[in-house]
Design brief:
This is AI-2E family transporter. The chain has 360 residues and is an all-alpha fold. It is 81% helix and 0% strand. The chain starts with a helix and ends with a helix.
Length: 360
Amino acid sequence: MDSDDGFIDKRFRSKLSWWVFGLVLTTILVYTLRGYLGWAVFGVFLYYVARPVARQLRQRGLSESTAAVITLGLVILPFVGILIVLASIAIVQLGTLEATDFERIVETLFPDGLPETVPTTEEEIYLFVEDFATDPTVGSVLEWGSGVLGAFVTAAYNLFITLLFAFFLLRDERRLSRWFRFEIVGEGTRVDEFAQAVDKGLRSVFFGYTLTILAIMVLTGIIYTLLNVIAPPGLAIPQVLLLAIVTGLASVIPLIGRSIVYAAIVVYLAVMAIQTDLTTLWFPITFYIVMGVFFDNIIRTYVRPSLSGRMFPTGLVLFAYILGPVAFGWYGIFLGPLLMVVATLFVQMELPRLLHGEAN
């Protein structure tokens, strides 16, 4: 009996030692790699965006490695390129905005407004540019250039690691899934069901909502550009690509998100038409018919249901996208929805069992 107790006690100490070792190892890894959290979450996002393509290729007889390589080259890299181009366009167009642009817009919309609230000099908006312009020394140029180069190299390295991470997720997803289900949680257990629900939720949010936003950005950019082709002289839509990005981001606001952007553009164009030539009022009316009636109905009827589905309440997705970047930084746009999916499914699936004491 004593020998049995000693054997059990020895097994318990051994198991406890391994748990302590695992906890220490996990703590070290988390602390060491904490700076790469955003890029890891971005890699998970890219994996969910590209996974349907990789699975289709595997079903057609391609090997896991070949399917992953093709998906990386034909889906992930172009997709990341589009994201970089959109971000660059937004930054460039924001950088080209001057104080006179804000003054003109405010004076157009509010002729009797508050001009003192509008910046009157470029120095008030571009302090760095002003300092650089007044003191263009060799030292300041080298310091600025080295900072830009260092930031570019760091971002390029992190992006390369992210692409590798997404590639290995695509290539080894079936192996990882089998290992997790059979070796870690057990097939058919509550944890297994919860993990599958999280996977489905992330697919809905990452592949659905985010691609919907991107599709709206691209389509509105094209439509705004085409509308400017037929616009009367002096009545073009300003900052087309920047407004297209804003329109896509506004789509996370249920029902009224894009309408707010459309309304602001229509009011601006209408006031400009009234102040210059009443006969040009047809352009803001045309803009509203094209965007507010036809385009919005296409998005609501075909694009959004086919891409995003209805797995989560729109309000939760809205707060996830809005609060994520505020709470975590740039990668919060991916981490916020991820946490929302996990938290929502926990409340839906597991919290009732914990509260009511149901068997696992």
